[in-house]
Amino acid sequence: MSDTSALSRSSFLILLALHDGPCHGLGIVGRVEAATQGRVRLGPGTLYGTLQTLTADLMIRDSTAPADAVDPDPRRRYYRITPRGERALKSEAERLRVLVDAAQARRVLGDA
Amino acid sequence: MKPAWAVRLVRGTATFLAQAYPAPFRAAHQDAFADVAEDRWRRECTRGRGRWRAAVATIALLFGDTWTGVRLVRRLNDRPSSRRPLMFDRLFDDFRLGLRALVRAPLVTFVATLSLAVGIGANTAVMSVANTLLFAPPPGVGNPDRVVDVCRSMRGTGCDTAGYQTYLDYRAQMTSLSDVYAMRFEPTPISLGSGQGADLLFAREVSANYFHVLEVKPVVGRFFAATDQRAAPQLREAVLSAHLWRDKFGADPAIAGRAIELNGDSFQVVGVADAAFDDASVLRPDVWVPLTAGSRGLPTAHLLKSRESLWLLMGARMKPGATLERVRSESAGVMASLQRTYPDVYHDHGFAVQPLRRLQAGFAGVAPFFAFLLALVGIVLIAACANLAGVLLARGSNRAKEFALRRALGASRGSLLTLCGIECLILFLPGFALAFIVARVTLTSVGRLTNGLPVPVNAQVSIDWSTVAVTTAVTVGLAVVTALLPAWQTTGGSLVGDLKQDAAAPRRQRLRRLVVATQVAFCLATIAIGGVLFRAAHLAAAADPGFSVANVDIATVNFELGAYQSKQANGATEALRERIAAIPGVARVGAASLIPLEGSRMGFGDVRRPGTTGADASIDAGQSVISPDYLPALGISITRGRNFTQADRAETTLHVIVNERFAKVVWPNQDPIGQRLEFGDFRPDHADTISTVTVVGIARDVTYKTVGEGPTSFVYFPLGELEYMKPHYFIVRQPGFSSEALAPALRQTLARFDRTLPLVDFVPFARYAEITSMPQRIAASIAGSLGALALALAAMGLYGLTAFTVASRTREIGVRVALGASRVGILRMVIWQAARTATIGAGAGLVLALVTARLLSTVLYGVPPVDALAVGVATMVVGGVGLVATYLPARRAATVDPMTALRVD
Predict the structure, then answer these.
(1) Cβ B638 vs Cβ B663: under 8 Å
(2) Residue B32 with chain A: CB contacts under 8 Å
C-alpha cells in the first residue's frame, strides 16, 4: 500500500480505537461504536478482515494482553498500533479535517 | 421464546457465513466471529429491541458484513500471487450451475423428481397410516402409555374377542390393573328416534367404567355413573360423541339429563365425550351405551351370562408401578385358573396384553396386510434409489472430462465434490415438493376409501414426519454418495486419462453395470408383483360368483331396532318383503339372513348326519335363512328337487336346501333329496335343541365368502322357523331403474310399514363385491402404478447405460469398423453387452418377484403363489423395453463413420 493517505473508514476507526491502547477484537467493536456514537457497527468480517489488512500493512501488530485487562482470556488476540499506524492515523485525520473544514466553510453543518 | 435460541441463531449464522472466507482466515477467526456476532446482538438488545428483532437486525448486518469482509480478505490475498477460489462466490456459482443443470438435463430431472416423489411419498403415506393405526395410541386418552388392550389369543397368537363372564373374572382377579373395561367388538347399529323418522347411528356398547379407565374428559356432564355394572343391571344412560352432539343436538350445553330414544327405549344422556376422543379403537361410534342397558338390540341377559359367546374386547389401566411383563404373567395365571375351572371353554385360549392401539396387529389380516404394503413401498424406495443412483452415476461419468478439466485448472477435489453435492440437492427440490403431494393425495384417497366401509372408521391420518426424515435421509444420502462417487473417482485418478476420456474406466463401468442390474431387478419385481395383484383383483372382479350382482340392491332392516319380538319378526320380514316387491321398478325381492361376499358367516346351529356323534361329526357349512324368492332373485338355480314355497314355513319338520358341494361331500353316491340331517347344538346338555331336517332341493354352488374362493358347502333354511331379526332384502330392479331412483320409494315404504324402523343399509350388491376385493384393489393399484413407473425408470436407466457405453466407445467402435467389423457384428456386440447386465438383473428380479408373490398368496385372497402369466408378461415387458433402450444407441454405434470416430478427441 503506497497510498496510506486513503485509509478505509474501518481501518481508520480501528486505528483510532487502538490509539487508546492495546485491545482485542470485541473491545475494538465497542470502542468504535462509542467513538461514532453508535453510528458505525462493525461486523466480524469487516473487523477481522481489516485487522488482517492492517497487520499486513504493518500498521498494527499482535500484542500481549495489557496488565490492566479485565478479562485476560488466553484465547483472545490483542492488537497494538505501530508507529507506522499512528502516522497513517494522523495523516488520515488531517485529511479528514481538511474535508470537514471545507464543508464547514460552506456552512454545510449549520452554525454550530 | 428463550434468549438461548436467538443467540444460537445469531452465532450459527455467523459461523455459517464464516465459511465464505478462505480457509486460513476462517480457521484463525471462526470462534471470534460468533463472539462478535453475539456481542453485536447484545448491543442491539440494549437499544430497546426485542430479542428476535435484534437477531434479525444482527443477521442482516452479518450478511452485509460478509460481503465487505470477503472482498477485503480477497483483496489482501490477491496481493501475493496465490489465488484461491472463494467458497462464498462458489456457493452462488454452484447454485446457478445446479439450476442450469436442472433445466438442461430434463431427463435426469424428470427421473430424479419422479423417483423421489414416489419413493418418499409412498413410503411416507404407508408409514403414516401404519404409525397412526398400529403404533400410536388413540387420541383423547389420558396417560395412554399406562393403558393396555387385552384380548383373547389362540395358541399364543392373535387378538380376538372374549366373553362377558371371562371379562368379569379377569377384572375381579387382576391385581396389577387398577381397572378393566370391556367393549363390544363390532359397533352396533342403533336407531335414534327424534320425532320425524328414525336416524341410524352406530353405538359402541361399553362397560360403565370405560371412560374412567381411559381417563377421557367429558365436554358436558359426566360419564356413566355406576362403574360396577352388576350394581346397575339396566343402566339406560348414553354418552354422546362430540360429533353427534354437534350435528344432531346443535351442541346444546344443557344436553345432560335429556332423554333420547334409542331403539325405542328411553335413555338419559349423561354427558358428551371430548371431541379429541373417537374411541379406544379405529372405529368412530356416535354414541356409547352401557353393555348392561338391556335394551332392544343390545346384549341380552343370555349373552351376558354366556362364557362361550365371544364378542368383547377388553382394555385396562395398569396400576402405578405395574409393568407390562407383570400384567402379562398375571394374566397368564388368571387364564390358567380359568382353564382349570372350565377346561372345555378355554382350551387353547390365552390373554394377549398389548399397549393400547387403534388397531391391534394381532387382529386377523392386519399385520400381514401392512407388512405387504411396507414391503411393497420398501421395494419402491430401493427401486427409486437405484434409479437416482443410475442417472446420477451416468451423469457423473459423462462429466468425467469436465471434472478433469476443472481440476487441471486448479479446482480442488473438495470444491468439485461440493459442486456435485449442491447440484444434486437442487436437483432434488422438485422431487421433495412432489413427494408431499403424493403422500397427501394417497392419504386423502385412503380416507375416501374408508368412507365406503359399512362401519364408521376413523382414518384421520396425518403425515408422519419421522418417516419423512428417514426416507429423505436414505434417499438423499444415497443419491449424494452416488453423485459424488464419479467426482471422487475422477478427481482421484490420473488427469491425463480422464482428459483424453479414454474409453470407459473399467471400475466405473462395473459400478454402473451393478446399478443398472439392480434397477432392472427391482423394476422387474415391481412390475411382476403389480401384474400378479392386478390379475388377482381383475379375476376377483370378473369371476362369476354364481349369481347376478348387477341390477340388485341390498336393503337391510333390523327388526330389533323396532319394537319386535323374534316371532313377530318372521312375519314382518315377509310382510315387508311383499310391500317392497310392490314398489314400481322392482322386479323381484328375496330376503336372506346373509349377504354373499360380505365375508361373514352366521350360523344357526350345527348340522350332522343322523347317527353320527362327536366333535368331527359336524359338517362345516355356511348357512342362510331365505325367503322362497331369494334363489330366483339372485339367479341361483335349483339343480334337483324344488325350491322353498310359502308352505314350507308351516311344515312341522324343517325343510332345507343344500348346495351341490354339500350333497357331494355328505352323500357322495346317494340321492340327496329326502335325506335327513340333524340340526342344533351338539354339545352335551343341549340335546333338546337338536331337530331333524329334510333336504328338499339342491342349489347350484355359488361363492359365498370371497370372490375367487372354491365352492364351499352351504345349507339354506326356510324363512319362518329360525330366529333372526336382521333380514337383507335383495331387490332386483327392472331395467331402466337406478338404485338412486329406488331409494326414496323404499324409504317411504319402510316408513309407512313402521316409522320406528330405520333402513340400516341400502347399497348396490356390486359394492359388496368391491369391498370384498378392496385389499387386492388397493394393493394392485399401488403396485400397478409403481410398476409402470419403475418400468419407465428402468428403461431410462438401461438406455442411459447403453448410450453412454456406446458414446464412450465411439473410437474403439470406429477402429473395429475400420478394421472390417460388420455393422451387424457391432450391433450384436453392443446389444449383447447390455443384455448381459440386464439378464443378470432380470434373473435376480424374477427370484424377488416369485418370493414376494409366494408371500402375497398367503396374505391376500385369490393371489396365486405362482402367476406364470403375470411374471412372464413382466419379463417380456422389461425385456422388450430393455431391447429398445439398447437397440437405439447400438444402432447409432453401428452407423459410426470410422473416420469421424477416429477423429474423436
Answers:
(1) no
(2) 25-26, 44, 48, 77
How far apart are alpha carbons B321 and B303 in whole angstroms? Answer: 35
Q: CA-to-CA distance for B393 and B654, rounded, in angstroms? A: 76
φ, ψ for residue B269 (rounded to 5)? Answer: -75, 125
The CA distance from A62 to A52, in Å, is 10
CA atoms within 13 A on the CB side of B672: 27
Per-residue pLDDT, B83: 44
Report the C-alpha gap between B424 and B482 in whole angstroms.
10
Model's pTM, two decimal places? 0.60
What's the ipTM?
A: 0.82
Contact B483, B396 (CB under 8 A): yes
Distances (CA, A) of B678 to B308, B583, B675: 22, 39, 10
In sequence order, which residues have a C-beta less than 8 Å from that of residue B477 and are 6 or more positions away?
none
A49/B72 CB distance under 8 A: yes
The verdict on a CB contact (< 8 Å) between B66 and A47 is no
How far is CA B127 from each of CA B123, B377, B447, B464, B529, rounded to the nearest angstrom? 6, 9, 15, 7, 20
Chain B residue with CA closest to A33: the answer is B43
Do the Cβ atoms of A33 and B43 come within 8 Å? yes
The string of DSSP letters for B738-782 reads -HHHHHHHHHHHHHHH-TT--EEEEEEHHHHHHHHTHHHHHHHHH
Q: How far apart are CA B299 and CA B402, in angstroms?
A: 79
The residues pairing with B656 across neighbouring beta strands, listed in sequence order, are B695
Give the three cell numbers for residue A15.
486505528
Q: What is the pLDDT of residues B856-869, one digit of tens each?
A: 776 665 667 777 88
3-state class of B227 per DSSP?
A: coil
Alpha-carbon distance B448 to nearest alpha carbon in chain A (angstroms): 56
The one-letter amino acid at B896: V
Q: In 3-state terms, what secondary structure has residue B862?
A: coil
Sorting pLDDT into bands at 50, 70 and 90, what band is B497?
A: low
Give the number of beta-carbon pairs within 8 Å between A and B.
Answer: 80
* Whole-number Cα distances in Å, B116 to B122, B383, B393, B469, B477: 10, 10, 16, 13, 12
* Chain A residues with CB-CB distance to B39 below 8 A: 26, 29-30
- Under an 8 A CB cutoff, do B61 and A53 touch? no
Dihedral of the alpha carbons of B51, B52, B53, B55, in degrees to the nearest 10: 90
- B60–chain A Cβ distance below 8 A for any pair: no
CA A3, CA A91: separation in Å to the nearest integer? 11
pLDDT digits (tens, 9 = 90+) for B198-220: 677 888 889 989 999 999 989 88
Q: Does B25 touch chain A (CB under 8 A)?
A: yes
Amino acid B718 reads P
Instruction: Report d(CA B590, CA B630) in Å as an integer.
Output: 4
Nearest chain A residue to B57 by CA distance is A41
* DSSP secondary structure string for all residues of B585-653: TEEEEEEES--TTS-----SSEEE-TT--SGGGS---EEEEE-TTHHHHHT--EEEE----GGGGG-SS
Identify whether the C-beta of residue B795 lies closer than 8 Å to the C-beta of residue B831.
no
- Cβ neighbourhood burial of B317 (10 Å; 0-12, 13-18, 19+): buried
Report yes or no: B786 and B380 within 8 Å, Cβ to Cβ.
yes
B589, β-bridge pairs: B731
Residue B66 to residue A43, Cβ atoms within 8 A? yes
Decide if B198 contacts B756 (C-beta within 8 A).
yes
Contact check, Cβ <8 Å, A43/B61: yes
Helix (H) or strand (E) holding A65: none
CA atoms within 13 Å, Cβ hemisphere of B717: 28
CB contact (8 A) between residue B76 and residue A53: yes
